[in-house]
Amino acid sequence: MSLPGEVSTRRTTSPGPERGGGATLADVARLADVSRATASRVLAGRAAGKSASHARVLAAAEELGYVVNGLARSMMGVGRRSIAFVSSIMVGPTFATMAGGAEDVATANGHLLTMCTTGGDPDREVALIETLSEQRVAAVLLVGSTPATEEFARRAQRYSDTLARVGARLILCGRAALPDHPHIASIDYDHRGGVRTGVEHLVELGHRRIAFVGSLDDMTTPHQRFLGYQDGLAGAGLAFDPALTAQSDNASDDAAAATSAFLEGHPDVTAIVCQTDVMAVGVCRALHARGIAIPEQISVVGFDDMQLVADLTPSLTTVRAPFHDVGELAGRIAVGGDYDGPAVLPVELIVRGSTGPAPH
Amino acid sequence: MSLPGEVSTRRTTSPGPERGGGATLADVARLADVSRATASRVLAGRAAGKSASHARVLAAAEELGYVVNGLARSMMGVGRRSIAFVSSIMVGPTFATMAGGAEDVATANGHLLTMCTTGGDPDREVALIETLSEQRVAAVLLVGSTPATEEFARRAQRYSDTLARVGARLILCGRAALPDHPHIASIDYDHRGGVRTGVEHLVELGHRRIAFVGSLDDMTTPHQRFLGYQDGLAGAGLAFDPALTAQSDNASDDAAAATSAFLEGHPDVTAIVCQTDVMAVGVCRALHARGIAIPEQISVVGFDDMQLVADLTPSLTTVRAPFHDVGELAGRIAVGGDYDGPAVLPVELIVRGSTGPAPH
DNA sequence: GCCGGGGCTGGAACTAGTTCCGCCGTCCGG
DNA sequence: CCGGACGGCGGAACTAGTTCCAGCCCCGGC
Q1: Which of A244, B84, B302, B304 makes the best surface tag, with the fewest CB within 10 Å?
Q2: Which pLDDT score, from 0 to 100, does residue A93 have?
């Protein structure tokens, strides 16, 4: 029942922009009475001319409310690929600040930033890397502490291989490079040196009995910071005493409970070094609750310099980590910058009110 | 100079998977000696069979390390579109928590979440909506306070129109619906009622001279919270006194300075309601600095219940906003759920140590 | 008047997938 | 022994763009 001359089209492809899903380049070209090639050239600004069709194309695009399909464009290799930011969790100043740094350079270079969380589940991480490869991201920023295990190294190599197949690269943020996998980029900051500096600061103030509150699992961040604590003691000629270590998860309630229990057995401690600011806050709360004055009786040092710790009473002495810079540097590599080997950014001790001279 | 029988290909399209950019479906099909159609069916799991070619396709895909191109798939309308989360800034618990809620439902439904910041610049916002439309996102979550102006309403309508053209929808998060634009979804929480509840709590404790610290600009969040303060006073039969309002930006330093200056002229105030927790922290610091006891001399109420304010000394009485729920609800609509009109989620007053009976 | 250069244009190939439709072969029932 | 049902498979059309190449027209120079 086709009319003569009518081209039989399959599906429900009625011509014209009313099809749904918006006007396409073909619709614009039809309305402007030019070919798709010409319409594409005009809209991409690749037609120098001021010809009549030039103006007709622009008018048609305007009239139809044409929005170029970035997916189709990306398929031709034109257009910018997204950058993925993968962390175990999104809340907390650490990740948000890093993400902010990465986002800054991403948008400045015309890329979008995709944020994904794994909840710390390796299976979800594997699935995520697969999905992101399918979506042809330009790079994956794998952010935060990871297991310090051979299993993780193998997993990371698998990620890197999968991503390399689609022309993307893997960038670790906030953990050290994997020595046997130089192709996996790493932007880290000085966890170990930061805690060491905190201990040295306490030693200068005359402290000798310095406790450590933190987690001792095999994740890179806790481990490196714990090593920094031992470094600091060793540098000052103090013996490392395992009994002066109180284990705690990264939650202020947990740190408060651990501190209370710890102090029962060790009333002679005059300073506490904390793995994170979140823990430090819990430590301070526990000290307040027991009527112990900070810093007159016990000094406290944190790590991260998260928002608000400067507003505590007393304000918290802590180590400022360059989260924004880490994100920015990683972003720069992600958008195609050179990678000259692992980066370890310096940290800075911020001395505030929670540390003071040792009593006596 | 072509050899006879050799098909002349344009560009550098040497056949085989070595071309760069990874193996394609055509490469897999070639290796498995089947058509692209068959390979596609097998890899999509749409081939029930256990035929010989079925196994050959899977083996070929494995051997070549085939990763399906999600862009090409999306172009066919298959595959999940991303969801965009647009806010002025990423740091701060507000946005991160909301983003977490949205990300939860996004990933649970197979979507990715793209995070973008505008820095509060309308031009960047406009450009971003355009870019996101081009990338064919499923929805845009426009997050946070916005100008309470007619200009913003027009702009939002433009966003909504652009997005509608590509089948996406606009969802406002954390600000009220625009009455004249019912197609623009809104998931908000009760700014105004929250502050009102805070004031009522103070009134019950006997306070009569209650100050307000906050910004008075024309953004929706500050404005609504300011109205809530006035509501609370009116409900208690107290007159609103403009002199009891101290202006401050949303920064603790600014709030501390504003509070110090304000107290010079108003020593009789016994309670301070703050627009945000960040400001409340600054207010508390200023009170500490002047040797004013909290809550014995002055009570303080915040808003947001951000991380750590429960760990201050004294812990902060504040209004908990359901950020995660807002993100979750918005995410649900973004992935295709029904929108039954504007939602205003309830907030909850969390009474802690910073509020107590009025002195005398 | 003819030829060549230059700019604009359109046809067609190309990106990498999905899916409709029809063909073919096999198997089983009548 | 033949017909129909059914499953697997391949050709081709389709998604929405970009870009190469050839052709056309127009204008200027000889």
Answers
A1: A244
A2: 77
